[in-house]
């Protein structure tokens, strides 16, 4: 079984997120999503509209997602790659190159970057404000 891991905040889930999740799931047999906690986002100066439990609830109802686990710090990627024996780590290409260092610790790991979709949660929020 090939295990795929993705990470993100997934606030106000939209079709570009779904495309990314579907593409990631299609790389293997099981998709694990590391979901940023509200506390982790706060350390990055980010605040989501939906709190962690809501984002988790929504993601768990997506057919491409097998498991949702919390991302509480930058070190959690290595922790979970090891724990779940992850084969592929996938992200949108807004993160291109940023996680290539994981290959030093996990030489067997494949790192894939997908072209980023058109929609962004911040754009959605901005446009909703204009309605
Ligand atoms: N994404 C995408 N196209 C979009 C929006 C998002 O491909 N239009 C991808 C991002 O590249 C990311 C995932 O969907 O792989 C989740 O996006 P965000 O919630 O914006 O994730 P982010 O906060 O960038 O999370 O540890 C790193 C962070 O957890 C990354």
UniProtKB/TrEMBL annotation:
Tell me the Pfam families matching this sequence: CTP_transf_like (PF01467)
Stretches assigned to coiled coil: none
Gene Ontology cellular-component terms listed: cytoplasm
Cytidyltransferase-like domain spans which residues?
6-126
**Record keywords:** Nucleotidyltransferase, Transferase
Gene Ontology biological-process annotations: teichoic acid biosynthetic process
What one GO molecular function would you report for this record?
Answer: glycerol-3-phosphate cytidylyltransferase activity
InterPro entries, alphabetized: Archaeal_FAD_synthase, Cyt_trans-like, G3P_cytidylTrfase, Rossmann-like_a/b/a_fold
Q: Name the domain of life.
A: Bacteria
Q: What is this protein called?
A: Glycerol-3-phosphate cytidiltransferase
Q: Which organism is it from?
A: Lactococcus lactis subsp. lactis (strain IL1403)
- Taxonomically, what lineage is the organism? Bacteria, Bacillati, Bacillota, Bacilli, Lactobacillales
